[in-house]
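U., I forgot to send this yesterday:
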Amino acid sequence: MPLRPLSAADLPAVRELAREADAEGFRFVWRFVASLEQQRVALDAAEEFFLAVVENEHVVGFGGVTPDPYSLDPTTGRLRHVYISPGSRRRGIGRALILALETRATFRYQRLRLRTDTPAAARFYERLGYTLSGEPDATHARELTGDLARST
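Result:
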């Protein structure tokens, strides 16, 4: 599936995904929409970037990496706003998105952290090599290496 940088032109598609996410009880996508509308995020910079997952010319998911706002370590990034449309899940799309984000993040970060509040998402990230962090501001973390190949 094609992955490409998320752009301001994708805002209508992200709004539609926010409606889907809201129906599932995930409010973080609307917070991301607000950040996009207020131009508070860099969509394609070295330290902050977001990718879109496109199927049949429609954005079906997205996610990004930013500097971790809870860490003073400039080599720690944060996996942010990862969302895949329910109809596109369980086909490897999320896995491909995370791998692409990690691959690009290795040029800037040595470690990624994230916060999730659902058991299903926790299992997903753990299958991808993230471990429970035990930190108050992140549920999971992963050291980045040059070899991001995974096996499950």
